[in-house]
Amino acid sequence: MVGSHRNAGSGQLALPLGWAAREEADKFLIADCNHTAFDLIAGAQDWQASGAILIGPPRSGKSKLGTHVAGQGQAAFIDDADGLADEALFHQWNRARDAGLAPLLAATKPPSAWGVTLPDLQSRLSGAVLATIGEPDDVFLAALIRYHLGLLGGSIADEALDYVIPRLHRTHAIAEHFAAEVNATALAGRRAITLPLVRDLLTQWNASAQLSLDDDL
């Protein structure tokens, strides 16, 4: 059964989901920025008739949530829906319905920004339930960095994490990118991920303008 364990004390973070505890990589961290999306998924029976759309930035967990629901036989997951042509998306929507499944779409923008011109598709999208994932706050950004480092077998000193958080853009993509870069730097230099290493990496990033990267990583 899908379930969450929110930390009522902080109001920011809880982990992991019970259904994702099988493997570290399947965990989905819950925070203020994404709990409405998780609640939508947990209440899949409420949108079986209308379909649903997950809207959120790159690397924010939309695909993970959608794949989980599809794996439970509750929906047909259509990823990157905003990048599909009208006819292709309409076909996939109808194929899901023909199979007795609810369409669950993932996109980075709301349907109103997709430029859909096919009237029948517009009608279906306008009736779908929407849930939006936002970008992380400082607390969740720190949790995401620790999570992605954990997947790589690394860890970061508390003072190093405290130093880097106010110096990064608050995006899911940057959290993952930073974790990969700092872990690779640590391995290459056979160093622990401490404050001096993080300072060195951020100095390099500033020099190459990497801190201004957008979400399309």
- DSSP strand content: 5-15%
Please, how many helices? 8
- The overall pLDDT, averaged over residues, is 83
Spans with pLDDT under 50 lasting ≥5 residues?
A: 1-23, 211-217
Description of the structure:
Helix 5 packs across helix 7 and helix 6 (158-164) packs parallel to helix 8. It is built from 8 helices and 4 strands; from the N terminus they run H-E-H-E-H-E-H-E-H-H-H-H. It has helices at residues 35-42, 62-71, 86-98, 119-127, 138-151, 158-164, 172-189, 195-208, and strands at 52-55, 75-78, 102-107, 129-132. The protein has a 4-stranded parallel β-sheet with strand order 2-3-1-4, with helices on both faces. It is α/β, with parallel strands linked by helices.
Question: Helices, strands, pairings?
Answer:
Elements: H1 35-42, E1 52-55, H2 62-71, E2 75-78, H3 86-98, E3 102-107, H4 119-127, E4 129-132, H5 138-151, H6 158-164, H7 172-189, H8 195-208
Parallel strand pairs: 1-3, 1-4, 2-3
Quickly describe the structure.
The chain is of the alpha/beta class. Helices cover 43% and strands 8% of the residues.
What structural keywords apply?
8 helices; four-stranded parallel sheet; elongated; alpha/beta; disordered C terminus; 4 strands; 217 residues
